[in-house]
Design goal:
globular, 19 helices
Amino acid sequence: MREQLRWAKQHLYTLLILSPLVFGISYMTVSRLAEEAPAWQPSQALGLLMAFAFVFSLIGLSLTRASGEIFHLRRPESVLDTLPVSLNTQLHAALAKRIGRTLIIGALLLIARALFDESNAFASSLVLPLLLFILITSLAEVLAALNWIHWGHTKNGVAAFGALLTVTVSAMLAGLLLISIFRPHGLPVFNHRWLVICGALWATVLYMLARVMHERWRASDIEYAKRLEAGSRVSAFGSRWLEKRFERAVAVELARDLQLTLRAFSSAVYVSLFISLLLLAALATVLMTGLLPAVTSEPSWLDSTWLPAVMAAKIVCVLVCTSLCVLVAVLVAYQLPHFWLERAIGTTGKQMWETKLWYARLVSLPAPVLACLVGMLSGHVPLFYSLPLLCECFWLWWLVSTLSGALAFEVPERPELSLILMISVACMFGLFVSVFWPAGFVIFAMNGIRALTERGQARANFFLQTEGD
């Protein structure tokens, strides 16, 4: 608590002005969408699948942070390993942090429920399912983090399979609890009671498993966890290409960032890749199942850019690029404790900014190719428009990646706010350009990109000089 209070005193602007502004705008936008959106009642199977995917994404996204809390990676709590503090006490402290973070998710879920269903939005009957959802999700995150580190250390396939099965059951049970929160009448009373009983029993089982694994594995896995920063290398060909294309300082830092990404420096890499593949699968499903409006006449070359299949490919290209580019914000936050090295070797703010800009472009480079390839393989994109579609997708990739990279140092110490900012700006500009083509090309190429580029360089230089204070 003392550490968090010290952090809060140094970031009053973020807490008192920027955070309320960003979350307030997000709340007003979602609330307006909820009012205007038509009534949608997904089937029970689809609802369960969505809830399961949501919980599984939460667990995957928390792997890196939960590992840091358990093994005190790059944290002041690492001094506890030299003191007579019991292992159970350290596990309970890490679990308390996980529960505190998941409580925020629970509060957001209640707010979302109130937006879409104002009747009994905060009923007392929701308290027990919500608490069990938070407890099971937090315990599953701790258990997954323990097994993630242990798998990297020992490659024990049996333990990894058991952990995957346990986490899957936890995600399914937490998903059912989530369904009971959003649709309390979707489950019979008898099933609801048994769901609560099973949730309490399963939470007890998860706690006992986490406790046993923590006691057995911590001593042997902690050194491997601390060595995670030492990883694989980019190929010699890739390093030579980077040094030929960029100045040496930028090439070295860019090679380092790509190394971290290939080694999955954060669980956000897995989540970003999963979302990208899911979007491409959704594009293929939409194109091949006839969900888009049918084209009755042969379009001209100029009108082909607004064909439903072409628009779907461009929109998915923007979304996939955004999903991959947001790794910039996570990477900057990950490297934040080591930025003093940049100052020590004389790196300039412009070089730091250019590194993150090209990192965003390189990690999202497959997006336009894959989106265009899925669109063409579906057979709904005219063959004569394949090359123009590829050019449009590459332009959208350049736009979205440039915008995301330019905002890399906007809120470096608050990655969650930086993620919201990047997603909002990249999606808004990218979708606008994809719809209003080619007018959007002129507008944002001449004005928006230049202004954000200048601001991004200034913010990187300011952050390098002040270290974010």
